[in-house]
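Input record (Table S2, row 293):
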Amino acid sequence: VDNQSNVIRRSGRFLQSLDDCDGANTIIVGAPMDITSSGRPGSRYAPAAIRVASELIEDYSPTLDRQLEDACFFDAGDILMPYGDVESSLKNIEDGCWSFYSASKRVLLLGGEHLVTAPAVKAAHRAYEDLVVLHFDAHADLRDDYYGMKLSHATVMRRVAEIVGMQHLWQFGIRSGAREEYELMRASGQMYYEDMLSPSGRASAAARVVDAVADRPVYLTIDIDALDPSVAPGTGTPEPGGLSYTDLMDMLLRLRQLRVVGMDLVEVNPMLDASGCTLVAAAKLIRELLLCF
Ligand SMILES: [Mn+2]
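Output record (manganese (II) ion complex):
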């Protein structure tokens, strides 16, 4: 793997990480950035805090009957963030992710705010030109700009759509957005909200996605606020009416046959997680993502 030492520094490791990159299929890497967070910053502390929380969960998943040592992943540390400089932070994320994609590794990025997804998708798209993006979130994140900023956690999926095409973006759990964002989603016909809250709705949504995506490479981005704030209160912009943990896992299991080449989990904010339960939900979700796909 070229170049990684330039933009990645070692840190603690997620539960059961391998000791080096060589035998790993999947690389965990943190992107501790929260520069553009409009509401309440603090998600820069999530990668370190999720690693600590991973010590509180088992390495065995009863749901999947697999354990982490079977997943062959390496936690490489955190991407260096020139704090306050959005463009060079995003450049480092793109370079860091590309160093792994170019070595035929899969990447699981730990945010950070949601804007980190844009350079991660850019790197994945360089490796897989027919990339499809699946997006779990409470918020559409499809604004063209936010207070004049093109690069913001509130515009990130618009930037992603510019990379892969709106027709290759599927959105789940969205329950908040401006009228212009809802017009875009209604035109695409690839956003599901109420369907995520019932088994039959998830079954039909998943069947359509699996059929449409087929064997194309998939990037999966999960904003923790897709979950209901009662499950995951530790996040910058909580939005009532969300998925339960089991709703989300059920939907992910229904998508299991997809070819997932990159993933991220973003917007966890340890500063707002008084109970610590959001961090445990995040750690458990990471374990299941590693074992599911
Ligand atoms: Mn969100």
